[in-house]
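User: what does the whole thing look like in 3D?
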Amino acid sequence: MSDRQTAAAVRELARTPLYDLHRALGARMVVFAGYAMPVQFPSGIISEHLHTRARVGLFDVSHMGQAILAGSQATYRLETLVPGEIAALAPGQMRYTQLLDADGHILDDLMVTRLDDEAGRERLFLVANAATKRADFAHIAAELPDCALTVLDDRALLALQGPKAAEVLRRHVSSAVAKSVSAMPFMSAKSDERDDVFFIISRSGYTGEDGFEISIPAAAASGFAQELLDEADVRPTGLGARDSLRLEAGLCLNGHDIDRTTGPVEAGLLWSISKRRREAGGFFGYEHVKRAIDHVPSRLRTGFLLEGKAPARQGSEIVTLAGQTIGRITSGGFAPSLGRPVAMGYVDTAHAAPGTQVCLIVRGKPLAAKIVPMPFVPHRYFRGD
Amino acid sequence: MTTRYTQSHEYVRVEDGIGVVGVTDYAQSQLGDVVFVELPPIGQSLSKGAEAATVESVKAASEVNAPVSGTVVDVNSALADSPGLVNEDPSGKGWFLKIKLADAAEIDSLMDEDAYREFLKAVS
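Assistant: Here's the predicted 3D structure for the full assembly of 509 residues, as structure tokens:
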């Protein structure tokens, strides 16, 4: 362990508005995308993970990039950079999509929420990954000079995730929104104002559970987080559990499961590209994406259930029982809800059928595993009553 | 009985030429929840500083190095079903392996408890 370097590096890092609160709660801080972030609190990753599945976990995701893209045709204009259906979004609806390069590879994945129009301009609220946010926003600003991109550096982002999230959040929003927060369907958003604080609340997340992401001014974030933590059902939850939760939910981590060498079709993200966009195109890398749709891609992102207790992590080779290399693991680890290790990675399409027995090479030794469909733990999103 | 510590946070507790090896309480707190431990085969000879075991936490895999040279004479088979013992009782039930020391003088190069405590103050 290189404690000394880590301790020194943490002191020079960017901090989120919740930094002092994390320290006060006893978090273990690590370096993530240039930020000092809590990897876990004293109760530990497994306990935080299971608590989020059973009740509610509160995550600080303020390191992620937030921006507003505004323009008379902002929805159509953003569609030139992403394959997702943006033009059909009504105010209050959101989509998961990817920024693609000219080769149809993934620069980043992001959430796009349509806000209410303002002064005749369409407005989109974008949430991008921490490590890529600067490059993403530079790319969007350069490609869409006719739109105004405002980066919201002065806002924090909290994720409140778990089956009791709606019940908790209802008590902490304005009385006007309190009535409707429980009825919000997954992938919808609302603006709210309480005590002169402007919130953007979306029913979304990265855990597979019901939950919300809450954008809030930096100055109000710590107080609001403390309010939520005062609820008996809510526990602070770190990046460690965030990763194990998203892995169980089969969700991609940019820079690992998707990156500038992978396309959305082989990554299993075709569901995020509407029929209209598959046929009409009009986005960077369309011809590559179209080819992957029309001809099955040569490899596919698949899930792996390991038979033993040793986890396989990013970089492990995937081999057939006959010893032929057919791919590589991109994410893997212990799945607390299943009590066993799981992994995801890309395998040659000929070997990607669920049920296929393979070996994952860890420290030179083959570990028995089976290809399985994802998610590993069923999603429990709230789709409406 | 003598207990000594390494800068990579292993301990070795020596009695009658046999050293019980594990990780310190500080190490387990840094690792977080341990979910798997890979132990060496009995009979394997290890030189001081060589990788003796691998400990997998939820987050990552870490190496446990041999604090002293010698031959592995026993491993803690309870860790196969209960890897969490490393977190709960690192200096007791969460031990990793026993080494028959090749050179009893090697432990003199390691830190005693007071020195390790000072070392921890410096790194944390």
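In plain terms: The longest strand of chain A covers residues 106-118. The mean pLDDT of chain A is 96.
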